[in-house]
Amino acid sequence: MAELKEYKCPCCGGVIEFDTESQNMKCPYCDTEFEAEALESFASDVESDGKDDLKWDTVPDGEWSEGEADGLVSYICNTCGGEVVADENTAATSCPFCGNPVIVSGKLSGMLKPDLVIPFKLDKEAAKAALREYYKGKRLLPKSFKDENRINEIKGVYVPFWLYDTEANADVRYKATRVRSWSTGNYNYTETSFYSVVRGGNLSFENVPVDGSSKMADELMESIEPFDLTEAVDFHTAYLSGYLADKYDVDSETGILRANERIKQSTEDAFASTVSGYMSVIPEHSSVRLSDGRARYALLPVWMLNTTYEGKTYSFAMNGQTGKLKGDLPLDKGAYKRWLFGIAAAVGAATMALTYLAWLL
Question: Mean pLDDT, to the nearest integer, of 108-118?
């Protein structure tokens, strides 16, 4: 005995029945009618919806040539466990992540050789000036936080990034509506039309960056993007002279998870931008399939300041190539209370003035 097929309403999700009066399929919940062929076609599209296939074929495997890393040493912070790499001539330094002293651990080991590096274009003075500018106008910023000695602690760090290239083939389906209203006599009418909108195509992604350091917040690193990867050059240890390099602790396989999120979101955003002319558009299903994926390891320039104020750590990062700066700031609680009191007083005075004016009228 053949199994009876059940159809769901594309508009509200209710089970659709055949209506003898209209001779169409009709939803008993929202009263939307469908031709049987159209409903069958929609059901077939839903059944054939594919799943994401976000697999990658290659990962970086760069190796240091013999003697190439001999001039590099590793520094360990005993406070936060951060590990940075520098040339052997670097004087005793402080941890760029928590500000505490670091000690020499020994020769570099256990790290892939970077494929690419973007050299610093902006020096420390430019970074300090940008940070001072960032402080300006922040009336609720504690005065003691602006001290020059904090700004002097800013450090140039090459942050490890994985760069992902891939081809994406995708299909996305949306539920869209158009609404038409009119009046006749004493009656107002509203007609809502529902549409199934489908988009599909191919996109190419190059150099999708993913932060390779767990000590650097992804949100902070992404906030100072983009980096101009056309200015990236082949890595040489000479670029580390005078700077620190964070040693990656998020491998390329783990970074793929974040890359997939960014690629899938970018693909869906690109397709959604082509759907226009509707009152509402709701994504119903998307399938993204990747191919020809590869990852490369790069060091990107960032000026960092991590400082502790009243027991809380505040982080600032500036793109060492473009100068884009982001960070979080502490709040002067006393100034904030005075500001709130001033706002409350102003609102109270305005309310009294309006009340008095209304009484006069």
Answer: 77
Contacts of 24 (CB under 8 A, 6+ apart): 18, 33, 34, 35, 36
Chain-centroid distance of CA 267 in Å reads 14
Question: Coil, helix or strand for 267?
Answer: helix
Nearest to 298, CA basis, from 162, 206, 119, 207:
162
The CA distances from residue 203 to 32, 41, 210, 264, 350, in Å, are 36, 27, 19, 11, 56
Question: For residues 281 and 197, is the Cβ–Cβ distance under 8 A?
Answer: yes
Give the Cα-Cα-Cα angle 341, 347, 349 (nearest 5 degrees): 100
Task: Note whether 46 and 200 are within 8 A (CB).
Answer: no
pLDDT digits (tens, 9 = 90+) for 256-283: 999 999 999 999 999 999 999 999 998 8
Dihedral sign, Cα of residue 110, residue 115, residue 118, residue 123? positive
- Each residue of 230-247: pLDDT tens digit? 999 998 888 888 888 888
154 burial level (CB within 10 Å; 0-12, 13-18, 19+): buried
Whether 288 has a pLDDT exceeding 70, the answer reads yes
Could you tell me the pLDDT band of residue 33, with boundaries at 50, 70 and 90? Answer: confident
> What is the enclosing helix (H) or strand (E) of 236?
none
Of 283, 268, 324, residue with least CA distance to 301:
324
Report the SS3 class of residue 302.
strand
Task: Residue 219: name the closest of 317, 303, 307, 135 by CA.
Answer: 317
Do residues 354 and 361 touch, judged by C-beta distance below 8 A?
A: no
183 pLDDT exceeds 80? yes
pTM: predicted TM-score of the whole model, two decimal places: 0.71
Q: Mean pLDDT throughout 16-41?
A: 74
